[in-house]
Target: Aldehyde oxidase and xanthine dehydrogenase molybdopterin binding
Amino acid sequence: MVAGISVPRIEGMAKIRGEERYASDITGSKILWAVARRAGTPSGILRSLGDEPASMDGVVAVCKADSIEGENLLGILELDQPVLVPLGGRIRYRGDPVAVVVADTRERAEAAARALTVEIDPLPAVFDPLEALSPEAPVLYPGREGGNLLASGWVRRGDVRSVLEDCDLMEYDVFRFPMQEHAYLETESGVALYDGEVLEMEVSTQNPWRDRDELSRALGLPRERIRVKAPCLGGGFGGKDGVVIQGLLGAAAMTCPGRAVKMVFSREESFLCSPKRHSSVTEMTLGCSSDGTLRAIKCRFTLDSGAYSSMSVPVLTNGLDHCCGGYRFEAVELEGRAVYTNNPFGGAFRAFGAPQVMGALEQLVDRLAKRLGADPLAFRKKNGLVRGDMNGSGVVLTSTVGAVPCLDRALEQEIWRSRQEWRNSAPEGKARSTGAALICHGQGFGPGIPDFANARIELTEEGRFRLYSGIPDMGQGNGSTYVHLAGESLCQERDRFDLVQPDTDRSLRSGPAAASRTTYIYGRALLAAVDELKRRMYVKAGMVLGAREDDLALLPGKVRCISSGRELPLKGLAGFMEPPERCSVAGSLAPVSFPGPETDYGPKSSGFPHCIFSWAVHIARVEVDLLTGQVSVPRYLAITEAGRVVDPQMYRQQIEGGVAQGLGYALFEDFSVKNGEVASKDLSTYIVPTSMDLPEVECLAVELDEPSGPKGLKGLGELPLIGPLPAVANGLAHICGPLTVSPFTAERVFFSLSGGTIDEDRV
Model:
């Protein structure tokens, strides 16, 4: 296998044939089913639970909070979410679970859960994050320091006030972006078995090791007595990066020792109870000089964390890290806040935090360019970061920076050069325009979370290679990429590899499938492990063949002495090696940088800002029906710099998928919540784009070799989602003026065209 060449994915045929095994596929004649009973009210005190299910047919157990021997608390960074709300405990959103019913069929479990009588004393609730900061607002966690303010952060450099006063032009606005549902094909699901000693769970998860840690604390079992396995996921995008179903499933299994228990969320339950992209309010000001030099940025953005903290703090700090995008600024003043409300909780979602701030930034950049009469892409190039510049977080960029190279390619493209012709070609009753955006996204977690990976690979007795994947495959194909990377280094074809999916008893802790890190961070560790295994193989083969190590070459299935032509099959080589010699382990830490002394980056506990980024320029052609306000995007171009391209097909698929989700975020998806209740309860009313709604996405790669990345690559997964919203918004601004509330539905566009004011409470 050779980097730069597309190869079929190792799981491809199994998926095509329907043979790939997901957590929800696990079956058995004796499997029990578990269903949770939810609170159904946004705020209150749980007073009592009935006993109705105990006498119903097929019911095996009813698990309540007093059945749990551990702390009964979950949380990635803050322990604030109960597995089950105890009697006398606080209800903080409608999806809070109060009990789990276990029965011999799913239908009986569902019926028994519905029959359970729940008595709750209602309490006042708050649903708007800005209102939640008011001293008069109901407090979700009485006695907690800071009240409803979960977390805050800031970045400050220079005197923003005086620099803005000295600017020749300024642009200011407030942008409101909604929650977004992950809408993965596979809802949360899993099967667990407790034998009285060990809790074993196979579950749809992006991070089995952290799940094990959380379950140990919450359920009262030592970590060594918990095993979590992660099969292939039917999508994740961040929504399965955290304990959502696992705690309920584990608690249910521990009430039924010796019986396997299965749990699969309905679509409605998934919509209510899984984490969402945070809704946000972003208030931003940009200032520039008359020659087109950006000088200052001031931003305050507020995230609705919902009832629980989940990943809100990393999302907040990641947003701060991306507020300034790909531009130089003389003065920076950024403030971020994450706020508790009685809404469904926010969590990780592809590009977490970046779309909410760059969606605002790129629109204001476009407005400044328009006021100056400048080409919007040329204006961006003038202010674009290059290697050696200091970015908004105060980090000097010493790695590859693709902002200007991507802009140079974009300025050459026909879709951009012919934008006036496109505008003039609009048929009667339609208007056309072209919008663009410069975007970036950091590699790995960035602020707040240590970023590492540990890889393990072994040469088996049969002369094959067993690769223990440390990061779950959400469908993006990282397992295939790992085999591709290892196969190229070992000069072996992919059919000589066996891939072991993440398993806390067999694989090594490597963090979640998230944060554009699955290839960049884990790939570094994997190639280090491969290099060590190759070294050991050469040492032993040299002894057997009587050759120097530099006179040996790996070939498919064998090692050859270059000078003599003698060969040793890998199975034979394995026979000469002891088991510890045949197994290689290596780790990798993400590169870190410190902000310069001129930047106040806080809070100090938030860790290191990103120092390595992938870059892109997105260009969207938009068309609007002037009678209805309906928006279509007939053509879309993504020009991307993410290091070297290892597999062109998977590279293109990542971009196409990200653009699809980004267009959904821009035009279709509005996860509306009214008084804490989800308005769009399933996919019949929550509209995600289909292939009929999407353009063919043209992909151009700008390849810059990234020295810190495996084979020179960088992460790509999150970057393409960020571009569609600002690119489409900038195109629409030429037709109907600025749009500051998304999604840009036909109703919103129509009212903007007519100069009317829309009642957002009705949208």
